[in-house]
Design a protein that fits this description.
28 helices; five-stranded parallel β-sheet; 796 residues; alpha/beta
Length: 796
């Protein structure tokens, strides 16, 4: 099969330039641009009748309905003459007074239909023989994508068609990426590294800005013995990113390149006859990492035919993988049995790994599958990473406990270990099950059954009483001063900027408490890492608050509440605003409201305008404090809306309070949104904080905590909490609650990560000469690395 398939009498090629073939021979017909566009539009939906009136409006938006339909008839006549001349016995195009459609058959087809055909099913057992036909089919489909959909085609004056064409291009590109990704993975599983690398390169050509695609290429190249090629690819990618975007590759990409450069990723050709576990791993490539594992098991409700059961299980595993990947989990390749093993905190560290893992487990067991139930186990523990590039727990001890916990779970239940419960306590409703003996274990393990999320979004939600502020009088005075100006009708914005754990959220909460007592309107929104590419995500949560949605509300009831809320606002045109907001909230429209006919850019612009108007309306009722936390994870569309709001001038009765970490680069000037940097506390202030939070802490331990906290309030609180455990002074371990946060901060300094880890093995104090000797570095190079680490404020 090729792009000019000779098995069809008529074959239409849409991937690349639009071309028409007859019996495998390319025709060179004269078609006006709108004839080409109409043919492509009809071919993209074979067998689906398209309304003539809709087509006339699509291609002649500025003409009257009658003139548009007249032009459509003329173009249609040209197309029919062309296609009927190739195949007189049967017409590709069917039409009546109201509709037109392209009919696909054995005699007439398109490369688009072949490209979008269902993917071949994977065999029950992976082997070269069993996978051959599947992979052949996938390769044929992947090769069809030689260029983007309707490449270089333009149709001036038809904005809606241009928008449609752009959407098609993006969807088809995603399909091509999926095919090349699947092929690369399948060939790698079969140890055919040459072909795996070929499709990895194809993936990277289609997505040249993808760090993930580049990582696959250089990893496979190194495994294929092409170390120089891998490093050259990485250097070219780094230069392009710096020149075009002004950024560096992701930390994981830089870490992989360093491993390849250090010879830590060995050629499979050289290792073909070596032992399964590498014997010469560089000690600097191995690190202790806290990782949370999930093991989920889909189970048939009733006994059925084995083939039917197998198909059901495969479909459910595909859906489970999508849920895990959406939450940025890492699926491990060799899970035992029919279940699925995944981990959070590897290969990329994240500071809420356990929290996201349990949330994902609940999503998995609550997913509806016909004739299936799912149960899950979750466990958190320390593993040695770096022994195997794709497997964080090569021994299987920690992941094995997650598998054992899942065996204790009943229908649609999530069972977690005490180690995980310690990290997520308060965020979920759970019941203690006591100690259980897991299969294959010699000791009993404390277990908990998780039922649902509690609604807590931040660690401050877990405390009944807010921690008193210590050493933040200057910052608090600044906030109350700004609020006083809001009461005088002077709207202002402010960015609180500081390291994680420095106390930004506590400042915000303290202000919120004070203003709530004054009957001010207070709204708190939060950006999150998993939704950093989801348009308007924080604003969607604001609409939920404004419309007073409840979890139990049906979609129809939510739409009614939305309509009532917007209809009450005089300065908002309800007929325009309500369909826009309903689409944003994924709510079904009810009469008299109808969907808008806007281009993508117009839709985004009007959505922003409607939201800003609603915010202005709020401030007319009473002064508003609008908090948006974690701006470093803000999605691009919400960021654009904030820029529009600030460009127009902050509403007179609005205080816009934003929090961000140092890596966030503000696109606004100091006039529109000044920044207030939150600095570490002094040792005396940390000592007072410990006395407030844990007055029973012995003075000797208090001094050690002050020294280790390095001015970060969160560290001081967690270390104080850990100090109640026996042996705290003797073992200088980092509390489990801080492990993920420190791993993230350390990973951000991938270039100097090895130096920091090596220094940590010596202790909190060390001689630069000793460290230079251990690291095999020149003194100037080592001092430069230590200076960079100091600037990054990594606390270990």
């Amino acid at each position: 099969m090729t792009n000019k398939d000779s098995s069809n009498v008529i074959f239409i090629r849409l991937l690349g330039s639009v071309e028409v073939y007859c019996h495998g021979k390319k025709m060179v017909p004269f078609l006006p641009p709108k004839g080409v566009a109409l043919l492509a539009y009809l071919c993209s939906t074979p067998g689906v009748p398209q309304q003539r009136q809709k087509l006339a409006e699509l291609f002649w938006p500025n003409l009257s309905a009658e003139a548009g339909r007249s032009n459509l008839r003329q173009i249609l006549l040209v197309l029919k003459r062309l296609l009927d001349g190739m195949m007189p016995d049967s017409s590709c195009l069917r039409s009546n007074r109201n509709t037109i459609s392209f009919e696909q058959s054995r005699q007439q087809g398109t490369d688009l239909a072949k490209f979008l055909a269902p993917l071949p099913g994977c065999p029950k057992e992976f082997s070269p023989d069993n996978c051959s036909s599947c992979l052949t089919g996938l390769e044929t489909m992947a090769k069809l994508y030689s260029a983007p959909f309707m490449d270089d085609f333009l149709l001036e004056g038809c904005l809606e068609f241009e928008d449609w064409m752009q959407v098609q291009r993006e969807l088809l590109l995603q399909r091509a990426l999926l095919l090349n990704d699947k092929l690369s993975n399948c060939f790698e599983v079969q140890s055919d590294v040459d072909r795996a690398l070929f499709f990895a390169l194809r993936f990277h050509e289609l997505a040249p800005w993808s760090d993930e695609g580049l990582r696959r290429v250089i990893r496979l190249a190194a495994l294929n013995g092409q170390r120089g090629f891998a490093l050259n690819r990485y250097e070219a990618f780094s230069r392009t990113l710096k020149i075009e975007l002004g950024v560096l590759p992701e930390p994981e990409t830089r870490q992989l390149a360093r491993r390849i450069q250090n010879g830590e990723l060995h050629s499979l050709r050289q290792a073909a006859h070596s032992d399964p576990l590498p014997q010469n791993i560089s000690p600097q490539s191995i690190e202790r990492r806290q990782v949370t594992f999930i093991y989920c098991q889909p189970m048939p409700i009733n006994e059925a035919d084995p083939e039917d059961e197998f198909e059901l299980l495969q479909d459910s595993l595909v859906n489970c993988k999508e849920i895990i990947r959406f939450q940025m989990g890492h699926i491990l390749p060799h899970a035992k049995g029919e279940g699925l093993l995944a981990c959070f905190g590897f290969p990329l560290a994240r500071e809420d790994s356990a929290l996201v893992a349990v949330r994902t487990a609940l999503a998995l067991v609550n997913e509806t599958f016909p004739r299936l139930i799912i149960r899950a186990g979750v466990h958190t523990g320390l593993v040695l990473c770096g022994v195997a590039p794709e497997q964080p727990d090569i021994i299987g001890r920690v992941s094995g406990l997650a598998i054992g916990l899942s065996n204790l779970a009943g229908d649609k239940e999530v069972i977690i270990s005490a180690a995980t419960q310690q990290l997520v306590e308060g965020y979920f409703d759970s019941a203690e099950l006591g100690t259980c003996l897991l299969s294959g274990e010699l000791r009993r393990l404390s277990c908990f059954k998780v039922t649902r999320a509690s609604g807590a979004c931040h660690r401050l939600d877990l405390d009944e009483a807010l921690t008193p502020l210590v050493g933040r009088n200057k910052e608090m005075n600044k906030l109350t001063e700004i609020w006083a100006s809001i009461n005088r009708g002077e709207g202002k914005a402010l960015i609180l900027r500081g390291e994680p754990g420095i106390g930004k959220s506590l400042l915000v909460r303290t202000l919120q408490q004070a203003l709530t007592a004054q009957n001010a309107q207070v709204f708190e929104l939060r950006c999150s890492e998993e939704f950093c590419q989801s348009p308007f995500q924080p604003v969607i949560n604001l609409l939920f608050m404004l419309c007073n949605f409840y979890p139990s509300d049906s979609l129809e009831k939510r739409f009614a509440k939305l309509a009532q809320t917007l209809e009450e606002q005089d300065d908002i045109k309800a007929t325009e605003a309500i369909p826009l907001m309903a689409e944003l909230l994924s709510l079904p429209l009810a009469p008299p409201y109808a969907a808008t006919c806007l281009s993508a850019s117009q839709h985004r612009e009007q959505t922003m305008t409607t939201l800003i108007r609603a915010l202005h309306r709020l401030t007319e009722v009473a002064p508003v404090l609008l908090v948006i936390e974690d701006l470093h994870w803000i999605d691009p569309t919400t960021l654009e809306m904030l820029s529009k709001l600030l460009a127009e001038g902050t509403p007179s009765s609005l205080m816009l309070l934003l929090t961000a970490r140092p890596e966030f680069s503000s696109p606004w000037g100091e006039t529109s949104a000044p920044q207030l940097n939150i600095e570490p506390l002094s040792n005396e202030e940390i000592d007072r904080l410990i006395e407030t939070r844990a007055p029973e802490t012995p003075s000797a331990l208090r001094g050690e905590i002050v020294e280790r906290a390095d001015g970060i309030p969160l560290f001081a609180e967690e270390l104080s909490r850990a100090s109640s455990k026996p042996g705290f002074s003797e073992r200088a371990t980092v509390p489990a609650s801080l492990q993920d946060l420190l791993a993230v901060r350390l990973e951000q300094q991938a270039e100097d990560k090895g130096i920091a880890q090596l220094a940590a093995t010596i202790g909190r104090e060390f001689s630069p000469d000793l460290l230079a000797e251990l690291a095999i570095l020149d003194q100037p190079e080592l001092l430069a690395a230590l200076f960079r680490l100091k600037l990054s404020l990594i606390h270990i």
